[in-house]
Amino acid sequence: MDNKDVIALLDSLYAMVTEAWNVPLGNDKCIIERAKAIELINDIKESLPSSIAESKRLVAARDEFIGNAKREAEAVRKAAEEQAKAMVEQQEVMRVARARSSEMISSAEAKSRELRKLASDYVADIMRQCEDSITSALNTIQLANRSLQSATAATKREDSAKREDK
Predict the structure, then answer these.
(1) Which residues contact 48 (CB under 8 A, 6 or more apart)?
(2) At what angle do helices 3-19 and 34-165 cross, to 10 degrees?
(3) In the prediction, which pLDDT does 127 show?
(4) Which is nearest to 73 in space by CA: 65, 83, 85, 62?
């Protein structure tokens, strides 16, 4: 028997009690056929174990379904947490890489500025040395030129004086 049969049996028992004749002077008491009532009660008792077993099976199936759903939800949650953690770690790696890259660029730019300054200072020093050397050479040449001109002028005077003496 299924639940509908148990309900039908209970409806029959209810109808039997509600339709029964009242006992004189006993408003809350009635007369029913004992054999019919006992038969209905026995039929209900026989139907209940199968109904209870079916209910237990349905409850167990529901509990298993809920358990599976909870396990699946937990697995999805864990996967989402792991994915979020991986994304956070990836973002952290990217942040560290960007910071490191920025530091390296700043360091390279500072070294480049320092090298440019050193090269400029070196070139300026070499240019000063070159200018000093050229100035010294020019002075030496000018001195030699003056000496040569003086010597040439002296030779010309001597030659002129010798010519005049002759």
Answers:
(1) 6
(2) 140
(3) 94
(4) 65
Q: What pLDDT is recorded for position 134?
A: 93
The residue with tokens 């979020």 is 84
Would you say how long the chain is, in residues? 166
What pLDDT is recorded for position 1? 46
Residue 116 tokens, joined: 């440019």
Q: Is the dihedral of CA 17, 22, 28, 31 positive or negative?
A: negative
At 66-87, the pLDDT tens digits run: 999 999 999 999 999 999 888 9
- What whole-number distance in Å separates Cα of residue 108 and Cα of residue 102? 10
Give residue 45's pLDDT: 82
**How is the chain split into domains, by residue range?**
3-127+134-165
Task: Give the C-alpha separation, 43 to 11, whole Å.
Answer: 12
Which residue from 55, 19, 58 is spatially nearest to 37, judged by alpha carbons? 19
The dihedrals phi and psi of 20, each to the nearest 5 degrees, come to -70, 155
Spans of the chain, pLDDT less than 50: 1
Say how far apart CA 43 and CA 51 lie, in whole Å: 12
The 8-class DSSP code of residue 24 comes to: T
Strand partners, 26: 23
* Residue that has been written with the tokens 């360091």 in this structure: 107
What predicted TM-score, i.e. pTM, was given to this entire model? Answer: 0.38
